[in-house]
Amino acid sequence: MKSVKEIEKGIFESMKKDFGYTNPMQAPRLVKVVISSGVGSLKDKKKHTLVADRLARISGQKAASRGAKKSIAAYKTRLGDVVGYQITLHGPKMFGFVDKLLNSALPRTKDFRGISESVVDEI
Fold first, then answer.
1. Is residue 29 within a helix (H) or strand (E), and if so which, with residue range?
2. CA 79 to chain centre
3. Which of 52, 60, 54, 61 has its CA nearest to residue 84?
4. 39-76 pLDDT, tens per residue?
5. Residue 106: how many CA atoms within 13 Å on its side-chain side?
6. Which candidate, 36, 81, 85, 96, has a CA 20 to 30 Å from the CA of 60?
7. Radius of gyration of the chain (CA)
8. pLDDT per residue over 104-120, tens digit each?
């Protein structure tokens, strides 16, 4: 498996031709990938384990639970109730995930129209 530096160097070389970058710091780079999912129903505990298991299978590492930031009576949530799960990927796992996502999963999605700019953060 290639190291992160080798991958970034190869990406820079291809971007250098397309965009005319002269310095590697000009090129955009991936720092981390965050995968998150809300659970929805708080009553169904099987749904919690299902969501956590699916995220673990997709990413290859265990999902961290995320609690509610405040209580909302209308939704019957209390401060700290588990409302979702999140995984942060760095390094080779991140590049492997992005590779599978862009080359396998998204092209197979029916009526796929691209990724919106709002899901990508700039540093």
1. none
2. 25
3. 52
4. 877 777 888 899 999 999 999 999 999 988 998 888 88
5. 12
6. 81
7. 18
8. 888 888 888 888 888 87
Q: Please name the residues in contact with 6: beta carbons below 8 A apart, sequence gap of 6 or more.
A: none
Least Cα distance to 85 among 57, 110, 108 occurs for 57
DSSP letter at 104? I
Helix (H) / strand (E) containing 88: strand 82-89
Helix (H) or strand (E) holding 34: strand 33-38
**Residues in contact with 51: Cβ distance below 8 Å, sequence separation at least 6, in sequence order:** 37, 39, 63, 85
CA gap 24, 35 in Å, rounded: 27
For the stretch 4-49, pLDDT in tens is 788 888 888 888 889 988 888 888 888 899 999 988 777 778 888 9
Residue with tokens 């995968």: 35
Write the single-letter amino acid at 33.
V
Alpha helix (H) ranges present in 1-123?
Answer: 4-19, 45-59, 91-100, 106-108
Q: Which residues contact 69 (CB under 8 A, 6 or more apart)?
A: 79
Query: Distance (Å, rounded) from C-alpha 22 to C-alpha 78?
Result: 53
